[in-house]
């Protein structure tokens, strides 16, 4: 199990415009989210979000407190969202056990000292996608299943972006300090996500692409609307999206993705639309 985190430093649109493919991948793509029997964490300097994954197998995994946090325990000054994209599992928070099935979510509030992750079946392990942001107040730990999430139907078959959005941690759902988290599932025959595109320079955003059929990919677009950059993304890989960047993608089949944000507010609708005819 890890004791240190990798780090990603923030860069601006001018620097991004000069990067080649390997540079774009180095700064914005997290290739390894889930490793059997381990917890993977990446500390980003975009709103100090931590992006990671826990994949317990035969033994439970305990959330570590990397030395670089300069804290007594991981959630001393932070909050955490965990969304399961694997088999059934549990998250234990200070002795209380929460069961999470596929696409169920748990919010863990600031001040929680001991957090551990376990799978119900090592042969079909849980895969907990983790997002953590700095917190300034205590909100209660709370679970929300996908059945309890707030579904919104968006898009249309004619524009190949028919999708269902499930909202878990947001202003009208599970309460948090600044963390926002949800899931989007594209319907069969639809491939575009977040189209028309948008930015929100008050919040960063991270995507985890998953439920991608074997051999398929998503072409993710980032950058300024007039200076876009492409990234080919595989199943269960994550994208970091700076506040100034668009974030949209097109798959070679339908897929799902988890979106998570942190910044000045938790308003899901706080976004600045980018007209299609301005994209370059």
TrEMBL record:
<dbReference type="InterPro" id="IPR021120">
    <property type="entry name" value="KduI/IolB_isomerase"/>
</dbReference>
<keyword id="KW-0479">Metal-binding</keyword>
<feature type="binding site">
    <location>
        <position position="200"/>
    </location>
    <ligand>
        <name>Zn(2+)</name>
    </ligand>
</feature>
<protein>
    <recommendedName>
        <fullName>4-deoxy-L-threo-5-hexosulose-uronate ketol-isomerase</fullName>
        <ecNumber>5.3.1.17</ecNumber>
    </recommendedName>
</protein>
<comment type="function">
    <text>Catalyzes the isomerization of 5-dehydro-4-deoxy-D-glucuronate to 3-deoxy-D-glycero-2,5-hexodiulosonate.</text>
</comment>
<dbReference type="InterPro" id="IPR007045">
    <property type="entry name" value="KduI"/>
</dbReference>
<comment type="similarity">
    <text>Belongs to the KduI family.</text>
</comment>
<keyword id="KW-0862">Zinc</keyword>
<dbReference type="InterPro" id="IPR014710">
    <property type="entry name" value="RmlC-like_jellyroll"/>
</dbReference>
<feature type="binding site">
    <location>
        <position position="205"/>
    </location>
    <ligand>
        <name>Zn(2+)</name>
    </ligand>
</feature>
<feature type="binding site">
    <location>
        <position position="247"/>
    </location>
    <ligand>
        <name>Zn(2+)</name>
    </ligand>
</feature>
<dbReference type="InterPro" id="IPR027449">
    <property type="entry name" value="KduI_N"/>
</dbReference>
<keyword id="KW-0413">Isomerase</keyword>
<dbReference type="Pfam" id="PF04962">
    <property type="entry name" value="KduI"/>
</dbReference>
<dbReference type="GO" id="GO:0008697">
    <property type="term" value="F:4-deoxy-L-threo-5-hexosulose-uronate ketol-isomerase activity"/>
</dbReference>
<dbReference type="InterPro" id="IPR011051">
    <property type="entry name" value="RmlC_Cupin_sf"/>
</dbReference>
<feature type="binding site">
    <location>
        <position position="198"/>
    </location>
    <ligand>
        <name>Zn(2+)</name>
    </ligand>
</feature>
<comment type="pathway">
    <text>Glycan metabolism; pectin degradation; 2-dehydro-3-deoxy-D-gluconate from pectin: step 4/5.</text>
</comment>
């Amino acid at each position: 199990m890890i004791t240190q985190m990798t780090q990603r430093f923030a860069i601006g649109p001018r620097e991004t415009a000069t990067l080649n493919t390997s540079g774009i991948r180095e700064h914005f793509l997290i290739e390894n989210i889930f490793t059997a029997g381990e917890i993977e964490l990446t500390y980003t300097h975009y709103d100090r979000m931590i992006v990671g994954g826990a994949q317990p197998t035969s033994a439970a995994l305990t959330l570590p407190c990397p030395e670089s946090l300069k804290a007594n325990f991981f959630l001393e000054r932070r909050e955490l969202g965990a969304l399961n994209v694997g088999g059934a599992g549990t998250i234990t928070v200070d002795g209380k056990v929460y069961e999470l099935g596929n696409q169920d979510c748990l919010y863990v509030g600031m001040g929680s000292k001991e957090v551990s992750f376990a799978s119900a079946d090592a042969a079909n392990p849980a895969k907990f996608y983790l997002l953590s942001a700095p917190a300034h107040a205590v909100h209660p730990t709370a679970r929300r299943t996908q059945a309890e999430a707030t579904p919104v139907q968006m898009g249309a078959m004619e524009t190949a972006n028919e999708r269902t959005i499930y909202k878990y941690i947001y202003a009208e759902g599970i309460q948090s300090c600044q963390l926002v988290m949800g899931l989007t599932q594209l319907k069969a025959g639809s491939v575009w996500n977040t189209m028309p595109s948008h930015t929100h320079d008050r919040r960063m955003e991270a995507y985890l692409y998953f439920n991608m059929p074997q051999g398929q990919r998503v072409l993710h677009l980032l950058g300024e609307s007039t200076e876009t950059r492409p990234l080919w993304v595989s199943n269960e890989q994550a994208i970091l999206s700076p506040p100034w960047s668009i974030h949209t993608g097109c798959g070679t089949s339908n897929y799902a993705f988890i979106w998570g944000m942190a910044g000045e507010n938790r308003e899901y609708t706080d976004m600045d639309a980018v007209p299609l005819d301005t994209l370059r």
